[in-house]
Amino acid sequence: MPKTVDHAERRARITAALVRVVARTGLHTVTLRAVAAEAGVSLRLVQYYFETKANLVHATLRALEEQSQRRWADRLAGLPSPVTARAFTEAFCAEALPTDEASRAFHLIWTSYAVLAMTDPELAARPFVAGPNHLEAQLSDALAAARAAGELPRTADPAIEAARLLALSHGLGTSVLVGQRPPEAALAVLRHHLTELFGQRAAGGSGGATA
Amino acid sequence: MPKTVDHAERRARITAALVRVVARTGLHTVTLRAVAAEAGVSLRLVQYYFETKANLVHATLRALEEQSQRRWADRLAGLPSPVTARAFTEAFCAEALPTDEASRAFHLIWTSYAVLAMTDPELAARPFVAGPNHLEAQLSDALAAARAAGELPRTADPAIEAARLLALSHGLGTSVLVGQRPPEAALAVLRHHLTELFGQRAAGGSGGATA
DNA sequence: AGTTTTATGGTACGGCGGTACCATAAAGGT
DNA sequence: ACCTTTATGGTACCGCCGTACCATAAAACT
């Protein structure tokens, strides 16, 4: 049949435009017309690919979920091959901190959606439970392995420590988003926590030692 | 002159209505008409006491600030007079967790406003920086005193520990709000952290010991 | 008693946003 | 060549929301 354009690509372009609008002016300013303008397409096109606004919003959330998983996977894939548990954990948790501008935008929109999901029964709260749960389980497994390898004290409970690490990271991330402290300060607190958790053995970072 | 009604009381009644609307259906559903209906007054009255919607929103934020301070003050005032540093700290941090329904509503709306402030330059981000900073300073002072009294290891840095405690508490609070874990689980993680921080001396709780 | 001020109700207006409707160009199949 | 389907544009409609305007009851002060 006719023109047959790549639907997935169009939809991705539009949801990306929505993400940019949210990052710039907030979720409450998202309108079909604003998204269309940001994406450089007509209002009608946005309607064409996502019948309704609710659809668009949901689709964007799903896109964010995938982006989130890709984000963590990429970060962890970039680590040196024989990695210490401490370095792995630090990378894992640091990904929850809005350091660069892209990361900040991502966490801002994610938080916006999370707040929306707290009251809107239409919007599935599932991603905000399953997502963190998945991360927590992943981290818990890594910590269990580290403990088995003797990199973590035997007294530490992997599940509790994973929960504590991620809650701490998320709390620090929010404080950065809100402008309470710079990203470096948040990272310093996180490192302090890691040092306490793993004990004082060498931190494994190949860079200069921090004073 | 005439009827002379208590303006402060009327304004308080209306901002309280706004808070209830947010807690129930989210900040994005707040409309002057909805607030008026919730408060049981006419739309015109809301306009009369707060000329504009932006005014109402800002006034409600100020009311929330006061409510926040009162919340913490009341909680701490309710503690037994000779209180251990650990019990004080636990009460202080637990106040950041949405345990009962009122607390949940409060933290939900506070978070909603915080997210709004991340992009809206009209809405002062100040409360979300000054507020936490004040809490952090308060807690830091308490920890310093506890350290001086020998209740906290001399190696602990009060400022860092205060930041870490509040970030952790806030992160746990969010995970509860979002439905990732029940309040008791969040409290358990917090207690674990406190035990590690203060060491294994008696926890000071006069109630039954938890298994 | 009258007047002025406060407090309150009702309502209309203008704008914006989501959705629906009507067109039409382009491309593939027959 | 023609028809059918896809992709796209434009636009109109309806509803809701913030704001402004017009009224009026009630109460203090003179």
Give a written overview of the molecule:
The structure is a homodimer of 211-residue chains. Chain A has a domain of 138 residues: Tetracycline Repressor, domain 2 (Orthogonal Bundle). Helices cover 70% and strands 0% of the residues of chain A. In chain A, helix 1 packs across helix 2 and helix 1 packs across helix 4. Chain A is mostly helical and 211 residues long. The C terminus of chain A is likely disordered. The interface between A and B is large, with 47 and 47 residues. The first copy, chain A, binds a DNA duplex (30 and 30 nucleotides) through helix 3.
**Percent in helix of chain A:** 55-70%
Distance between the termini of chain A: 67 Å
Coarse structural class of chain A = mainly alpha
General form of chain A: elongated
Secondary-structure topology with pairs:
The structure is a homodimer of 211-residue chains.
Chain A: H1 7-25, H2 32-39, H3 43-49, H4 53-77, H5 85-94, H6 101-119, H7 126-148, H8 158-177, H9 183-198
Chain A binds a DNA duplex (30 and 30 nucleotides) through helix 3.
Main attributes of the structure:
homodimer, 211 residues, mainly alpha, Tetracycline Repressor, domain 2, 70% helix, elongated, disordered C terminus, DNA-binding
Summed up:
The structure is a homodimer of 211-residue chains. Chain A has 211 residues and is mainly α.
